[in-house]
Amino acid sequence: MLKSVVRAVGAAVRMSSATTSTARALPLSCPTLCSPCSATTRPFTRSLWMLNSKGASSGYRPKLFSSKVLQPTVSCGCGGLHTEGDKAFGDFLSDELKEEKKIQKNKTLPKLSGGWELEMNGTEAKLTRSVSGEKISVSFNVNNSIPPNFEEEAEQGQQKSAEEEPEIVSTPNFVVEVTKQASKHSLVFDCHFPEDEMSHGEGEEESDIFAIREVSFQPEGDTDWKETSYTLNTDSLDWALYDHLMDFLADRGIDNTFADELMELSTAIEHQEYIKFLEDLQGFVKCN
């Protein structure tokens, strides 16, 4: 009963903070930004120029991004433009890559408990498993899954040591698809990590760290969410029905433990993709 009450309160919060959803594709690619919880995290080291007293709010940019026109110098046979700014940019990327690789916690992607199999397609990930004849898949995209996290000290220009820097975690939207044998349609859940349900105080009953945004029946195997199929929005849903939907997912292994492990996996994938992007950017700047 207490669990139902907690979810009822969560549903009320969702009603007050509901936003209009946009057209989607499976998997979703616009994750909700929220605070990190117990998943694997790493120091927030990106865009460090914003952390000084003349950061983004003042329109200031470091000398690296100065608008001053620099004379090109040809240093290779690629035919591209090469400037002193490009050299400084390349040196900066070399240092950045060293730091990111130093703090990388997962050299290999962590495995989820419960027998989930992972498929990767760039920044998209798909987890699948079978339970008593049912096929369950969970899809997510790590793009835009890192929330901004600039604290008051950063706005005041107070630099922090590496140990004191805030940590970040990837919290992507994810889509759960449940397919039964001999069924032409799959039951699809659009889920996310709402900030107001990410934590709870000591002594309180554990609440759900993820929430269902929408539920719909979709043709099995289709990658596009068909807007012609009826979609149940949970913002104004009766709490008892919502509770049963959450229990339906929990019975199939989609619970708080799974959500924690998914964030850990997503964080590791996102960090790998970020490092790969820096390497590609360095090669592009240097024409390697």
TrEMBL record:
Keywords: Acetylation, Adaptive immunity, Apoptosis, Cell membrane, Complement pathway, Cytoplasm, DNA damage, Immunity, Innate immunity, Membrane, Mitochondrion, mRNA processing, mRNA splicing, Nucleus, Phosphoprotein, Secreted, Transcription, Transcription regulation, Transit peptide
Disordered: annotated span: 144-168
One of the GO BP terms on file: mRNA processing
Recorded topology in the membrane: Peripheral membrane protein
One Pfam assignment: MAM33
Gene3D superfamilies (UniProt xref): Mitochondrial glycoprotein (3.10.280.10)
Family the entry assigns: Belongs to the MAM33 family.
PANTHER family: COMPLEMENT COMPONENT 1 (PTHR10826), COMPLEMENT COMPONENT 1 Q SUBCOMPONENT-BINDING PROTEIN, MITOCHONDRIAL (PTHR10826:SF1)
Protein name: Complement component 1 Q subcomponent-binding protein, mitochondrial
